[in-house]
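stuck on this:

***
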Amino acid sequence: MNEPLPLIAVTKRNAARVAAKVRGRSRDVSEVEKIVEEIVAKVRLEGDKALLMYSRTLDRAEIGGALRVSGDDLTEAAQTIDAKLSEALRFSLGRIRRTQGQLLRRLSYTYVANGFVTRSAPRPISSVGCYIPGGRASYASTVLMTAGVAKLAGVKRVVLCTPPDPQGRVSGAVLAAAQICGVDEVYRVGGAHSIAALGYGTETIPKVDKIVGPGGIYVSVAKRLISRDVPIDFFAGPTELVVVGDETADPRLVAWDLVGQAEHGEDSLCGFVTWDEGLARKVRREAALLARGAQRESYVRGALDRGFTALCSDREAALALVNAVAPEHLEVMVKDARSFSEGIENAGLVLLGKYAPCAASDYCIGTDHVIPTQGYAALRGGLSVFDFLKLSWTTEGTKEGLKATLPSLEALAKSEGLPNHYESAAARFKR
């Protein structure tokens, strides 16, 4: 076995170069772009026929032509899954909706000033397609984080696509979660071909207005490719976790959290950042011990071997590296975590202290686990009700309010060579 989490020396001056090197360990998306282009083109041309063919050849699944999961199957799944799992799904959904509900309520307001009344009202988009990964694991929680939030936002048509198993079956937990969230349509199809179906439509799957959800490299590239025609959320997947620790961090917990994310697969980005050389050694040693004989061992070892330990010259170098990497998840296990976090500009979700592990955020803290990867956390945060809404604005004016704007309106309109803009407003005060 290669030594896990290879050591890299970092200073503030070389932090950007190290971040580029770390990012360079991820798979080059250009390798799959041509393949995905062909898949998307074929689905657009052949519709359901292409979906069934790719299900057989890529997913190794026989679905017998029945792309849509029946409503009876959804109901049965919700009624037959383990009672503890059902309770956990409802518990998690409740927390997600309470968290997102806080944001939703703040989007409606009325502002009265300067003779005008301006109102903001969030309105849902009409339809959304949610991609739920499959294959290596079953992601019922992702149904909650996507479809559950979409329904909270008021989206009328929420569609779910997820890969089936070789017998053409969809995970009972995923179906139960879909039923609990109120999903309108579920299709047993995954991969890049399902993204093409959601984006452009087929005989069975009507197109949607927007596509959200995490996925592997093929799904992510497909989303980016069709984004020219259909809005998407962002590049989401494979998963990323960077942990920052100082001498107060427990090396066993750091190692466990990295192993927890590493089990997603070798494409996962797992890294530890510290300025304590002794801690760096301990974390690497603990990670090696935990990986040996771990459940999903091949995935864990693969990710840790491709991961990194950044031994930084000081805290400032650590911050510079974190901001340059812009990880999806960032755990901060340092003595003054809140103070340290004030310098973090680029991270999808920041988790402070040892009692906010990434695994908890993946399931039931109330935060969403669909978060930008590949460095896009430098540009935006995770999925939220915002992604399923459009803000509608209305303004009501008074005679006095409009009159007070005329001098500025005139100067601006005439400077832009649009004098009739001004005249149209001023006409209200002329006979």
